[in-house]
Amino acid sequence: MGLGRRIGDTLRLPTKPGRIVLVVLVVLALAAGAGGAVAVQAPNVLSDLGLTRAARAEKDLPAPVPELTGLRADAPLPSSAGLGSVLDPLASSSALGDFAGVVVDPAAQAGAGSPTAPLWQQSPEEPLVPGSTGKLLTAAATLLTLDPTDRLVTRAVAGAEPGQVVLVGGGDPTLTALPEGRTGTYPEPARLDDLVAAVQKATAGQKVTSVVVDTSAWTGPVLAPGWDPADIPGGNVTPIVPLMLDGGRLDPTLQDGPRTTTPAVDAGEAFAKKLGLSASAVTEGTAPANAKPLGQVYSAPVSSLVEHLMTSSDNVLAETLARDVALSRKADPSFAGASEQVLAALSQSGFDVTGAHMADGSGLSTEDRVPPRLLGAILAAAAAPTGPGEGTEFLRPIVSGLPVAGGDGTLDDRFATGSASAGRGVVRAKTGTLTGVSALAGVVTDVDGRLLVFALMSNGQSPATVRPRLDTMAATLSRCGCR
C-alpha cells in the first residue's frame, strides 16, 4: 500500500466556498493558483488544498507581503549541506536539551512507495515526548479511517419506564447548551435546544419525568496514563466520556477555562433543566435495547473537526476522534484501544510507526513517544502534490488547520521578536508543550518559493527557553534558499 493511502475507498474533500485568507502570505504555504500540485509540480493549488481561514478582526495580523504569487514550478530544492549550514548551529545549542528534528520535501512524498530521506535531520528516529504534536497522529488516522463528511451524534431515546428519557452519548464533545446565536469554542456545534425540541415533539401529550445518562459507548478509565488530574481545573482536559457539553468547559466560551469533573452528569442536568426537571431527576444508566428514538443532533463534519483540532489543540476532541478510529476498526473504544488503533491505521496506510508509542490520542500523556521522522512523514503526506492516481488530498485538513505564526490558534502569540519574527505569517505549525517538552511541526515556504515540512522536538528543558529557539529555526527556513 502506498504511503498515506486512505483505508478503504479514496475520498476527496469538498471545497469550502466563502472563506477568507487569514494571512495573505501564509503563503499559503502550499501555494496559490489553479493547478493540481504543490511546489515543483504545480503552480496553483489553493482551491485544491483549501488553505484559507477566516480573518479575526480583533487580532492584529502580520502585515501582508506586497505581492502574492503562486509557488514557482521550478523552485529549487535546498541542499542538505545548505540547510545544515544554518540549522546545525541552532540545533547544537545545549539550551535545546535532548533535541531531534527533520526537514522534508513534501513533493518527494507524492505517490506510492516509501518516503525519501529528509533534506536535513538530527536524530530523526529518536522517540521523544511529543506533547500536542502527537495530535498529528490522531488527525491523520481519523482522516485515513473515517469519511470526512461523517458527523458525531448525540441521541435521545425512550427509557424503560413511562416518562423516562435516556440521553445517549455518542462521543460528541462539541454539544452545547448555548442557544442559537451564541457561539462557544467549537465550529457548528450540535445544540441541546434542538434535541430538547425533538424530544418534546416526540413525546407530545406525555410528561417527561426523569432523565437517564448513558455513557456506555466507551470503555475503560476516564483519565489516561501519564495525565495529571490537575489538568482538569487547569483547563486542559475533562474526564473522557462520550457525553459532555462544550468539551466539559465550565464556561463554554473559554478555550482554556477550567473543566468539570462530572461532564456526563452535567450534560444530563442541563438537558433535564431544559425539559423542566430538576437535577434530582437525573440518574446514570443505559438505554433499553431497541429503544424508541426521540431525537438526535449532529456535530460538524469530521474534516471541520480535524481542522479545529489542529488550530486549537483541543485535547478532548483529540481523544474523541481517536475513539472513533477504534470503533471504526472494531476495537475497544478506550485509551489503550484507541491509541493502538491510531498507530495501526497509520501503519496500514504505509507510515513507518517504529518507535512510536501513544498512551492517549492528544499528546497530553508524559508516556507518549514519537520520532520526528513520523511527524514529518504525516505532514509531508498531507502537503504532498496532487498527482496521478490515488493521492493524499483527504489529509489536507491537517495542513489547512495548522495555526499561522503570529496569526491564530496556538501560534497567535509566537514568532513575535528577534530572528523568529521573520516567520510571522509564513510558518504554519502544530505546537507541543508540556513540562520539559517543546515541539513544533509544520510547513513553511522558503525564499525561493519551495514548500518545506519540518518537525522539531526538544525534551528536558523549559519551554520558556526552548520555544523561541524552535521558532527561530522555523523562521530560518523561511529566509533560506540554502542551496
TrEMBL record:
<dbReference type="GO" id="GO:0006508">
    <property type="term" value="P:proteolysis"/>
</dbReference>
<keyword id="KW-0378">Hydrolase</keyword>
<dbReference type="Pfam" id="PF02113">
    <property type="entry name" value="Peptidase_S13"/>
</dbReference>
<comment type="similarity">
    <text>Belongs to the peptidase S13 family.</text>
</comment>
<protein>
    <recommendedName>
        <fullName>D-alanyl-D-alanine carboxypeptidase/D-alanyl-D-alanine-endopeptidase (Penicillin-binding protein 4)</fullName>
    </recommendedName>
</protein>
<dbReference type="GO" id="GO:0000270">
    <property type="term" value="P:peptidoglycan metabolic process"/>
</dbReference>
<dbReference type="GO" id="GO:0004185">
    <property type="term" value="F:serine-type carboxypeptidase activity"/>
</dbReference>
<dbReference type="InterPro" id="IPR000667">
    <property type="entry name" value="Peptidase_S13"/>
</dbReference>
<dbReference type="InterPro" id="IPR012338">
    <property type="entry name" value="Beta-lactam/transpept-like"/>
</dbReference>
